[in-house]
Amino acid sequence: MATGRSTQRAGSRMGPPADSPGDGSGSLDGLLAAKEIVIACGPGGVGKTTTAAAAGVMAALRQGGKVLVLTVDPAKRLANALGLEGIGNTESRVPDEAFRSAGLKPRGELWAAMLDTKESWDALIRRHAPDLQTRDAILANPLYKNISGRFVQSHDYIAMERLYEIHSDGKYDLIVVDTPPTRNALDFLDAPQRLADFFSSRLLRWLIVPYRSRLVNVATRPFYQVADRILGTQFLADISEFFVLFQSMHDGFVERAGAVQRLLSDRRTTFMVVSTLEGVPLREAEFFAQELTSRHLHLGAIVLNKVLPAYLQGSAAATVAQAMKDRAEELANSLAPTLGSVDTTLGDVAQIRRVLTEVAESFLNFRVVALREAEEKSQLGTVPEVLATVPFFDTDIYDLAGLVRLGEQIWD
Amino acid sequence: MTALLDLELVFVTGKGGVGKTTVASAMALLASQRGKRVLVCEVDAKGDVSGFYEAPPTGFAEKEILPGLFAMTMDTEASLREYLKLHLRIPVVGRIGPLAKAFDFVATAAPGVREILTVGKLCFEVRERNYDLVVVDAPASGHIIGQLAAPQAINDLVKVGLIRSQTDWMLDILSDASKTGLIAVCTPEEMPVNETIELAVRVKQETTVQLSAVVVNRVLPELFGRHEEVVFDALTTAGPTEDLAELVGGDPAPVLQAARLAVTMRRTRSTHLERLREGIDPTVPLLYLPYLFTRSHGLRTTRQVAASLGEELGY
Fold first, then answer.
1. In Å, what is the CA distance from A133 to each residue of A204, A208, A273?
2. Which pLDDT tens digit goes with each residue over B179-192?
3. Domains of chain B, earliest start first
4. Which among A206, A359, A369, A397 is the top mutation candidate for probing chain B, defined by the most B β-carbons within 10 Å of its own β-carbon?
5. What is the ipTM metric for this complex?
6. CB atoms within 10 A of CB A267
7. CB pairs below 8 Å between A and B: how many?
8. CB distance from B191 to chain A under 8 Å?
């Protein structure tokens, strides 16, 4: 199995024990060197995908070994940067050339793959189906098509399932996985258990009872009488056919779901919660961090993204801005000669006054937000081993160099 | 196209984190301020809506939280209970437990069952004319299609039965562009814009609902006119900056740097705005809401957003 990074691993295991909360002073470098799986999670719209990719790029660059970034829904340009355009489910290596042209020389290999829900479900069915006939019947079933394509929670399970599959191949030293956007950030944690429950449920047994014996069975009759009136007999028959087929895969599925569940709580796995310092996403991220801890899952890092720069908080600067706003007219008069001497078109007093006012007001506006963010950060209830902050970049991140720029902020 | 506030059922969606709930809350508030009887329904059940009005948490039973403004939280089990009571006249109380469980179970596998209970309840309120306008804080854009397409999906899968007969009238309401509309919320950033453009295509192809507007949230203000930026550039050079420092008695560098950041941020974002305009059918209006430099979120912020939305709609 992978040995490329084993020496570094041994060294970095010196840190605090995995289950104790930290003080946020650890480094992502240390965390990633000690783990095999990093699961990036958190509310939507906070830059989860980009942060996960940046962490993977940094590990490949600085630590070496084979690193895989398993992503769910990357922006087009990010997919491009990782060479994922049109590739989908198969893992592909980000060519060294891509690093070289960004002026970078990676110690290890960076691989990337995108999660294709439908394709992954099909692969799962192929693996677990007892025979070809069942396999084809399931793949062609209209309910299955809907489940694999549309059914919301199917994404959650399949992402974890793919992770398990890739990890058990042993091909990679480190896998960084980005989680799908969910209604509830916890959905994907529960997905394996829910799937197992689903297959073991008494209700499932009801549904696969042959139609005729349903109406004779005293226990199930009331249910069917009502269900028939609501859903119609044909639909119920379709559903039951589907479940009969699915039932044939029961053991394989349940066993697998259990293995996926164990992998999540394995000591080689850690979670990286990504959030911004906006109130609503932060509450969600905090809840998630607490939930991880209470389930004895390893919360390794919290990354706070898109944070306004610290210089916006300065009170001396605020005094200057206030003065610029209050005394704009007077200041413009004093500055006009100097500016006008550079270029006569720059000496217009009214224009200078407007610029001074705009600049000052903009600073004071952003300061309100920056102070609010600082306050939010200081009130964080759960602090893991690593607490990193990423500043608001003034441009989008769409290439390897950009990912490194972000990565460097969270690395040491 | 029917004016936004004259619709009867409006779904508000968008990528996570763009301010979907803010816009839904503000729109409902605006409509109620303009004299309409409004129901705002939270489908995601994160419990945020009440926070935007600084009201106590809401449940399935609608509650008037401001004059003319009612709020509720969707609960599919409660919706099923209501449905059974209305249509089957089943003595519900005793049996709902296992039945709801069974439903939950079927819903896990059969697409659209859970969704139909949600959409059904909303359409019901519209059909009964209980409100002038129902605003739905709908699932995020990744999941909204499943929601809106549910009646059609059920219609395709279920050939007979009570559910089948129920989907027809829902489809009538959903496909009527003078009654029902979808609002996509986004921010001027890469992913939200991409997702909005993709959503617009899918809404057209996969649902019968009309995209009524795109709301662009958190638009940064333009600091300078064209020549003013030249003045600003000159101001940031060594000489003038030193003069300014002396005049105000402090270092203006962070203040100037912040303005530079604001200008670049706005510029990066404007390229995404252009892509958005190009990617969306020109007949769909784009409404712009400003970035709010506020301390926190609450009723005051919701009022501000409602006022901005009102301005954009020409009120």
1. 22, 18, 43
2. 999 999 999 998 89
3. 4-221+272-312 (3.40.50.300)
4. A359
5. 0.88
6. 12
7. 237
8. yes
